[in-house]
DNA sequence: CGGTTGATATAGCAGCTGGTATATGCTGGT
DNA sequence: ACCAGCATATACCAGCTGCTATATCAACCG
């Protein structure tokens, strides 16, 4: 946990989603949130709640090497 | 997913937590939410967001037989 | 060309969340 | 008896969420 919080939570979300090759709608479904939440995160309008960050971290872990650098960059600690 | 939503989400939360023998604070930490959220859920003041329900379902699945009946009762579908 | 479909962006609003703070009761220790 | 610690309950408020709805744009297709 403990993702960096500035200035790039938006990047984390968008990049994670792109690496999974999912639309905002499908990524949202995978996380268990609404598509609007993902959209707002990516456009910097709101920040993900901690439980959502935890899910994103979990997805990155499941991706193996594909998600490793993002894990290090945003969840190191 | 698709937990029943009435009249007993509060019971689901409290019962799940009790079976894990955790305080509200520790259960909250396990879920990735604040202790206040768990407290509000158990006292019927608010309902868990979908992503939180998903986490609760996940915990119940990890509990094996201990959580089986709750899964059936609240997450059947 | 016009129509449809999928993906994205944005708004408004009721309801939920986390942080901070206060209060109660209970247990264990001095 | 006093008190520190823990678990619980509740309040307030800024920020986030889901829902419903609208709008734009690109790709496809008849």
The rounded Rg of chain A comes to: 11 Å
Helix/strand/pairing class of chain A, anyone?
mainly alpha
The CATH class label of chain A is Mainly Alpha
Please state the second-level CATH architecture of chain A: Orthogonal Bundle
Annotated CATH topology of chain A: 434 Repressor (Amino-terminal Domain)
Number of domains of chain A: 1
Structural descriptors:
DNA-binding; 77 residues; mainly alpha; 434 Repressor (Amino-terminal Domain); homodimer; globular; 5 helices; 68% helix
Describe the structure.
- The structure is a homodimer of 77-residue chains.
- With 77 residues, chain A is mostly helical.
- The first copy, chain A, has one domain: lambda repressor-like DNA-binding domains (434 Repressor (Amino-terminal Domain)).
- Helices cover 68% and strands 0% of the residues of chain A.
- Chain A has 5 helices and no strands.
- Chain A is globular and about 30 Å long.
- The termini of chain A are close together.
- The model of chain A has no long low-confidence stretch (mean pLDDT 92).
- Chains A and B meet through helix 4 of A and helix 4 of B.
- Chain A binds a DNA duplex (30 and 30 nucleotides) through helix 3 and helix 4.
